[in-house]
Design a protein that fits this description.
The complex is a heterodimer.
Chain A lengths: L10 H22 L7 E9 L7 E9 L1 H17 L8 H28 L2 H37 L1
Antiparallel strand pairs in A: 1-2
Helix pairs in contact in A: 1-2, 2-4, 3-4
Chain B lengths: L1 E2 L1 H7 L4 H8 L3 H8 L7 H10 L4 H4 E2 L8
Antiparallel strand pairs in B: 1-2
């Protein structure tokens, strides 16, 4: 059966090569925030507004790009890992893939709904930050657990 | 849906891995079908029947519960 919208299997490795450095940079950002001046650059922004100042549109401004780099690496990496074909991507694997995606979406939004109700003010901003990545991460965990389970069932049969 | 893939494999002295290779799916898929954990597509059912040189009805059989949605 043809499976659409998936990358070739070899992109899975590429995904890991992007995701791991992205994750490390993300952790560095969480620890140091914008303190590393090495990452300060003048960047083009469609919209930006610092706290207590007016909004600027289509402007050039100084920005610490550590969070941008980390986010881009993590998201593209996780997308490639999640949506590259398995070695044998067949109809059963596609079913597990779909089920895992549905499950991950439910869990992701269930947590977001709880956070909307119980987390407020600036702390909620952190919820939104993490929420950028959690859907893909929940999917990866659920999908790989389900795959491992089905592989283990083979060894039980033998 | 019941199936007799395991029986047919035994008759033909064929491993799950060999059948998987012949019908171009993973071993997990053959295993899940045998265990009744996955309802396969018509194309795959036809391929499996073809490999065993049998009619599809010999290998796959509807159950009462299949009529309940």
């Amino acid at each position: 059966m043809k499976t659409n919208y998936l990358f070739s299997n070899r992109y899975k490795k590429v995904g890991w090569f992007l995701f791991i450095p992205g994750l490390i940079l993300g952790i560095v950002f969480l620890i140091c925030e914008s303190d590393i001046s090495f990452f300060n650059f003048k960047v083009f922004s469609i919209a930006e507004q610092a706290i207590f100042s007016d909004a600027n549109f289509f402007s050039i401004s100084e920005n610490n790009v550590l969070d941008e780099i980390s986010s881009i690496l993590m998201i593209t990496g996780a997308l490639l890992i999640a949506f590259s074909k398995e070695k044998y991507e067949d109809e059963f694997i596609s079913k597990i893939r779909l089920e895992s995606l549905v499950w991950a979406t439910y869990i992701n939004y269930a947590i977001l709904l709880l956070a909307i109700i119980f987390v407020h003010d600036m702390t909620f901003l952190w919820v939104l930050v993490f929420n950028m990545f959690t859907l893909l991460i929940f999917f990866l965990i659920r999908f790989n657990l389900a795959l491992t389970k089905s592989k283990n069932q083979i060894s039980d049969e033998e | 849906m019941k199936n007799s893939i395991k029986v047919e494999r035994a008759k033909n002295n064929m491993t799950q891995a060999k059948l998987a290779e012949l019908v171009k799916v993973s071993r997990q898929t053959i295993n899940a079908i045998e265990l009744g954990k996955y309802n396969l597509s018509t194309i795959l059912a036809l391929k499996i029947a073809h490999v065993f040189n049998q009619s599809i009805h010999v290998i796959f059989e509807l159950e009462e519960s299949d009529w309940e949605s």
